[in-house]
Amino acid sequence: MLLFLYEKISEDIDGFVSAFRLFSNNISLVFLVILLMPFNWWIEVLKWKYSIQPITQIPFSTATVGVLAGIALGFVTPHAVGDYFAKVFSLSHHNRKRALGLILISRMMQMLPTAIFGLIAFYIFSSRNIGKHDIPFSFSFPILSLLGLVLVVLLVIMFLHRNHPKIQDYVMPVRKMGVKLVSLLAGLSVVRYLIFSAQFLILLSVLGLKINLFMQFMGVAFMFLAKSILPTFNFLSDLGIREFSVALFFESMELEVAPIIASGLILWLINIALPAFIGLFFIPKLKLKNT
Fold first, then answer.
1. pLDDT tier at 27 (50, 70, 90 boundaries)?
2. Which of 42, 106, 110, 197 is the most exposed place for a label (fewest CB within 10 A)?
């Protein structure tokens, strides 16, 4: 993925320079994207604070420590495993094991809008590309996607209804989550997804792309889906997947991808690299000892 990114930059250095010049000439819009970043992570703090309610009440400051330290540790660990570590160790010792299932549910709620919009984007992408080769994949894709989502839901329900003593510490707190709390987490996840998308769309608006806003949103959704389902081993592979997927989608629209990749790089710096740097100062606040 990183090799792809390097090749794209090498192939069109002038395109990247022109794109960054456009952003420097529209610095007010870039500043607006930066202003949206705290709202993005504030919602994640609220999600963590509310999701842990079935086992304990934590103040906003403790939730902030867990989220920001998680960003920093997730930045350098495979598939953001460090995020789990930071959130668990921001809690007191006796709540840590019971928190794992709740963290998983919170991440699943964030995956909900990613899957819904991403699958629509993938269907559009497959219809435009796989259909050119007379492969009837695009017709069966909606049905396969629906069946896949139903299967995941059924597996989760079956797991939650197991009574094996070794998994009770993980399952019982999840069972205590009512419909109201799950709906709240799902709603916050959708809002956070829309903020992410709005940030990227604001950056893309600077480029004057010759496709409508819906297709631009679909390109962003395609990128988020790829980032969520493809394995990453560190922050560099995460960066490569983002740029590879967004280039793949917009290139199929016969657009120049260099400016779009430049937009993705700027968004990565604002939403991931900068918060990860801030999160470094919160890692010492984690409760690493069993107190």
1. very high
2. 42
